[in-house]
Amino acid sequence: MARDKTICGIDVGSNKITTVIAVCDKEDNASVIGVSAIPSRGLRKGQVVDIEDAVASISQSVDSAERMAGVSIGSAFVSVGGAHIQSQNSKGVVAVSQPEGEIGSEDVRRVIDAAKAISIPSSREILHVIPRGFIVDGQEGIRDPIGMTGVRLEVETQIVTGATITIRNLAKCIAELGIDINALVFSGLASACSVLSETEKELGVVLVDIGAGTTDIAIYVDGALSYSSVLPVGAKNVTNDLAIGLRVSLESAEKIKLALAVKPKFAVTADEKPAKNAETDELDISSLELPEELRKASRKTLTEGIIKPRLSEIFTYIGLEIQKSGYGGLTPSGVVITGGGAETIGALDTCRQRLVMPCRIGTPQGLSGLIEELSGPQNSTAIGLILFGKGSDISAKRDLPKMAMFVKMLPNLPLKNILSKVSHFAKGFLP
Length: 431
Known about the structure:
Elements: E1 5-12, E2 16-24, E3 30-39, E4 43-44, E5 47-48, H1 51-69, E6 75-80, E7 86-95, H2 105-116, E8 124-136, E9 139-142, E10 152-163, H3 164-176, E11 180-186, H4 187-195, H5 198-203, E12 205-210, E13 215-221, E14 224-231, H6 235-246, H7 250-262, H8 277-280, E15 282-284, E16 296-298, H9 299-325, E17 335-338, H10 347-355, E18 359-361, E19 368-369, H11 380-390, H12 400-409, H13 415-427
Parallel strand pairs: 1-6, 3-19, 6-11, 12-17, 17-18
Antiparallel strand pairs: 1-2, 2-3, 4-5, 7-10, 8-9, 8-10, 12-13, 13-14, 15-16
């Protein structure tokens, strides 16, 4: 009986590090068996700024998930974010190798390799090469050309690149734990795997993943990723504004922001009857047990005066980025907001006002098991890593580094001396 495949996803975010461990059965159904979310240290805006602190927080998250799952992790899919992520479109052209003109998997691999041959600075490296569509002898709109007949094969791809230094620092943090990296996955792409439906991708949709320090944008047109970018603003900017406006710590400001999102109508008045505007406008801050002696605050001041202006600024930047992509009029499915920032009060309304498009909050789908702890939009990337890994062949990748190391060591082993000593020892027993 074949063993179930274990997949691990590590979402390395600016606010928290989430580790999810899932098991895939023979029917390819993934079930979560371990999950852990730990506040991140040593990271800022999706990039490692202190390796020692980052390793400690990632290790804590992985250990906690391993204890819950009862398994040890040898490899993982790791998310990559930050403003250093960029994308560009590229084309590749090859001649079909088979004499009868039938396109095989080798031809597809060659044409994608041809599309990868782009000029990028030495300070950047390619994360993803995602086919948008194939063209066979001038016929466009082909999803899978394998088995078709033709002479000339073309491909249009979306190439996602990142800063080499940032990627290497993150890879070093994971390597410090003795974990092999199956793949580094752009966090916006991972979120899209868990919150977008196939219909939305086909019609055209904009995914907006609002994290703590950054906002990922992924635009799908005709079922394929067509544009991706990262903005250096996020939900932490809202928290900072609250902290400055109320003169409280960042931790207290975060509690107030979450309380507004979860219980938007908590008031000072004890009676349950519909209250007047003057009464409902006052919020009971003392119930949050903050260290600061803050008892009351105006709901209108917090939402309309502090939170909404910052959200308007963020969605204005998103609108400019959609306009820059050139796909603004090709997304009838509208905008799907996910990430921890999606739960901020007024985010959905502000999105509708600023972008003038249909909007919804995307929650992760597609997994079973311990999903109660992963139901919120803040876990979209972590679940997306599992779904991304489910479609990848990771069984062969896990032992590659170890095998490569063994092969590398072979020339250095003193095999000749060992064999001569064994033969000399055997001769001692001969008459």
